[in-house]
Design brief:
Layout: E1 20-22, E2 27-29, E3 41-52, E4 64-69, E5 73-76, E6 85-87, E7 101-103, E8 112-123, E9 128-142, H1 149-212
Parallel strand pairs: 1-9
Antiparallel strand pairs: 2-7, 3-4, 3-8, 4-5, 6-7, 8-9
Amino acid sequence: MTDASPLCYGACVEVDSDTEAVINEGFKLGCIYCKMRGEVDATATVKWSFKGSGDSDFSDCRYEICTFIIMQGDEIIDPRFYERLVWNGSKHTRDLQDGSIYILNVTYNDTGTYKCEFSRLLKYSNYDYQTAIEKNITINVVARLTRGMASILSEVMMYVSIIGLQFWLLVEMIYCYRKISAAGEEALRESAEEYLAIASESKDNCAGAQVAE
């Protein structure tokens, strides 16, 4: 029996790349170019270029890092990146949407601007349509990651919320304890009054019985 259920595809979201790399560690250079018309067949290629912190332009061909073309394989041109680049984007498809790459063993010489050039050919029934996008990512290499202000504020707010919740819980516990304690005292008082009333009534009955005799 053939399964006629439709195939499911993950949604594409264009997320900006990180910009701070740590020395001697790996770093992902993100470059995503989503296709707006998922039903249209397409092919796409990605080319990455690099401009070091002391370079003036991308124009010199020796600064071209790599051209990822699925049909021709992955070609690394710049010798500075030999055996240090790994494809980290879309796999098993010619219709690339994620053109990210991963740099192994980051060095301070990797500081600079990386250019991601995405080219896509949309294949309609009667014609082809070419689209392209270019993204520049400036990377700073540091000894260790520095936390952003948003991250610090988020952590502070988290701890403030935890302390606030604990204080509210303590107040609720004290309130409940006092309420239960007050209810217990009231119950004891009512029991004592009831006992005294019964005892008084019994005493009166005994006195009445003695008079009748």
